[in-house]
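Quick one, tokens below:
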């Protein structure tokens, strides 16, 4: 196999403008594409410098149901600061909690898509 990375992750949303405000203004993502397509608006956002982008898929774009995405892990250098920023923006956050692989929290976007934040920790090998 010669796979190098994931190109994009689809996040089904009910209102692309509302979702854009959340991902851009609250999470700090950048718009990487905003195009009118025959089937609807192709809107993508991503953290600065990321290889994988997030497609904010609105009604008519693929038959996705808003809020059905789960388990999307976002790596951060400071999960506590990011949780505080989310809370200040009115987002309900669970955690952060210390786990063997890092400090982690979870939250949902405005459509109910499940996202997680993690500050990773190096795992010790079983033989140590």
């Amino acid at each position: 196999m010669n796979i190098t990375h994931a190109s994009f992750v689809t996040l089904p949303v009910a209102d692309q403008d509302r979702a854009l405000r959340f991902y851009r203004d609250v999470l700090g993502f950048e718009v990487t594409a905003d195009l009118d397509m025959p089937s609807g608006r192709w809107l993508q956002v991503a953290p600065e410098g990321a290889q994988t982008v997030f497609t904010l898929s609105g009604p008519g774009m693929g038959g996705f149901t808003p809020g059905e995405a789960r388990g999307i892990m976002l790596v951060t250098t400071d999960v506590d600061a990011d949780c505080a920023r989310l809370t200040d923006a009115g987002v309900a956050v669970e955690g952060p909690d210390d786990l063997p692989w890092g400090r982690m929290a979870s939250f949902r976007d405005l459509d109910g898509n499940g996202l997680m934040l993690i500050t990773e920790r190096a795992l010790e090998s079983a033989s140590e």
